[in-house]
């Protein structure tokens, strides 16, 4: 079966100049990223700031051209696909519903716009259907985003993303700007939509608890590289990569018994310019050996995980 | 009787807007004993940040702040003057903010920003102030602190900047530290480092800590006591273990239930979300502010005042249905 | 669905305006002046350029020497001053509007493009802005008039081509802050064209800012027109313009000061009206945010 989303060896670099006379440096935002998501499944993409999640999202949406590699959605290459086809296949939901809706447009316009752009008919009826689908009363069609609550705005953003009937939804931190109680509403909505519409989803988040709840399998990224990928159960029960373990340990649970995790990380911060061939996490890694820095780390299968660490056992 | 570092009764903050008076804080009681950590937790718009800023006296002049009692680090500030508060600020009481990037001035060196306050407040000489800055930077885990005094904020990572902010707050050797979402802007691995640091500092220096957050994970990790705030009032106050093990207020229960817990919440199951949204706080609010979203609300919930049911050690909840809640 | 206690009743622009005294006063004043300008042929008692040398320099109605049929008196060529004032409003408003159309279009387009695209495009446009700022307006106008002859069209063209800088600077800054908003990325994800993003999505967000610039610039242009006409670089006699009238009244300033005071006050009033209205509208039309 053809996967719904397939990324093959994606690489994207930015040229940066730190200071006016400094030589340009290459920042590798995404390196050799390969991902597959089967139809109807949800991939959780996890990592901290600077790990390349956002770049990966832009590439999947066709907004950013990778230096190298292929993206296929439903078996079709996205690079050569006409925009009108692309937008009917894949749509984003962004993090901040305050910023993802143009504040001067009415909800009616915002939700209907994608359809309007592609010559859809019966826009009004469709907008109504969409608002109903995401659980918003139809009378809000007349409102401006500023008059809605954060949760309502995120519902509008979801309605807008779904009106063209895409098969893939890319959710970039869709709940991290929301309050806990509203977050649960949106998670429930995404879950029911996924079931109802058979959506394939990529759920990008730094919140592991939310990812665990939504995703079927999880890919962990660090400084542009996928360092571990596994089915959600396997990853949460038995993470292989030291970074994944640190990340899991650092996730604070609403349980006072759990206390604060013992920090085993080095004090160094993630440095995207680190110029060594080996593991990018090595400078912070509690299990680091000299060879980690020297030898390029390849993805390998360990138990149920795909892991980029030669020392993981 | 333990010494109270903060004792506030019936704090009210109102802000005039063009749609009417916004009663953002509607009678908050807060007590923090010496060496304690109190987490003030709530959702956006519940008034938790305003509470903190009003304690620090940092609200704009048009905000109306009243309280029946306001004692801080042993001083009665009920009839406080701005001058009196300003004197406490930066010495006995210090505050750290959510975003370390915007709280540090990018055009001044770290050393300058750390030393300025104590040189003014405590009349320290430059070398004395710098010595203390080095001590504090070392304390918060900045390596090679002496050399880094001459650097500018952009030379530090986000986590390091928050450490510097904390060092800066410690410069006046405060007894009470108010932290407003100190880790929200940080990555999770950095977050646990900063929280660990705050916990250590508190133990070593005998600090009292008022930590404001929306993250129940942070609360569970660091608090002794928790005050859950909703619509400008404290809905429930309890020791951390009790609150998580047996929340009593329907709102607290709802909040805790709404968070998915890996390994506990079945994957893909519908989360028990709290329906509806926070009520608007413009004008008067009758009865319990949560009743529109509350599953067990009844007619009596619309009556004023909402009874407060107190227990030992400052625990209380404000809920008329409390009997049924505990059952 | 439970999120229902939403306030969907918005006060209309009109109702908001009633609460804003400045906008109300400015708007009324502006409306009156516009009405006068539009209806000039109907309400002007005389032909504004018809001379009557037997009735020169008649004083306005509050003088005892005044004549009832010339309510505001006559100028040094015996032309009815009230009629000239009424027609003068046409020139002031016309020039103001015409120049803003030209300069606004240029400035807003350049500013949007520079702010949205950034990079070398921004460098080029910023350079153009700096270049424009270094040009002295009066000297350039002088040169243009020398080449093209003084006329209303020359005046509007020259001022229009010179006064776009403030529009460009303001829209550039606003576009820079808007281009990183997520809704722009969302629009690109649905394949919206750049033109649509720039002019139909970003531009409406700048409504309030642009309104303020428009009000400042209209006032500025009206004063510039008066100044240039006064210097003989703008409107040609006998066309009535308030600036020209002030210039023509110069010789009689000692004995007949109203010749200057009347068009001067009219200018003042118009500029004040425009500014009050612009300021008020900015407060009123800003997007609803919490």
TrEMBL record, chain A:
InterPro entries tied to this protein: AAA+_ATPase, ABC_transp_ATP-bind, ABC_transporter-like_ATP-bd, ABC_transporter-like_CS, Oligopep_ABC_C, P-loop_NTPase
GO CC terms, sorted: plasma membrane
Family annotation (Pfam families): ABC_tran, oligo_HPY
Main location as per UniProt: membrane
Topology term for the membrane: Peripheral membrane protein
Oxidoreductase recorded as keyword: no
SUPFAM superfamilies in the cross-refs: P-loop containing nucleoside triphosphate hydrolases
Gene Ontology biological process: peptide transport; transmembrane transport
Superkingdom of origin: Bacteria
Keywords: ATP-binding, Nucleotide-binding, Transport
GO molecular function: ATP binding; ATP hydrolysis activity
Location within or outside the cell: Cell inner membrane
ABC transporter domain sequence ranges: 5-248
Family (UniProt): Belongs to the ABC transporter superfamily.
Name of this protein: Peptide/nickel transport system ATP-binding protein
Species, as recorded: Primorskyibacter sedentarius
UniProtKB/TrEMBL annotation, chain B:
GO terms, molecular function: ATP binding; ATP hydrolysis activity
Keywords: ATP-binding, Cell membrane, Membrane, Nucleotide-binding, Transport
Record CDD domains: ABC_NikE_OppD_transporters
Cellular component, GO annotation: plasma membrane
Subcellular localization: Cell inner membrane
Primary subcellular site in the record, as a coarse category: membrane
Pfam families, per the entry: ABC_tran, oligo_HPY
Domain ABC transporter residues, every copy: 6-256
Top-level taxon: Bacteria
Recorded topology in the membrane: Peripheral membrane protein
Gene Ontology annotations of biological process type: peptide transport; transmembrane transport
PANTHER family named in the record: DIPEPTIDE TRANSPORT ATP-BINDING PROTEIN DPPD, OLIGOPEPTIDE TRANSPORT ATP-BINDING PROTEIN APPD
Protein family per UniProt: Belongs to the ABC transporter superfamily.
Protein name, UniProt field: Peptide/nickel transport system ATP-binding protein
Annotated source species: Primorskyibacter sedentarius
TrEMBL record, chain C:
CDD domains hit by this protein: TM_PBP2
TM regions (residue ranges): 23-44, 91-117, 137-164, 210-235, 255-277
One Pfam assignment: OppC_N
Subcellular location: Cell membrane
GO biological process: transmembrane transport
Keyword vocabulary terms for this entry: Cell membrane, Membrane, Transmembrane, Transmembrane helix, Transport
Topological type in the membrane: Multi-pass membrane protein
Residue ranges annotated for the ABC transmembrane type-1 domain, each copy included: 89-278
GO cellular component: plasma membrane
Gene3D superfamilies, per the entry: MetI-like
Similarity comment: family membership: Belongs to the binding-protein-dependent transport system permease family.
Protein name as it appears in the record: Peptide/nickel transport system permease protein
Organism per entry: Primorskyibacter sedentarius
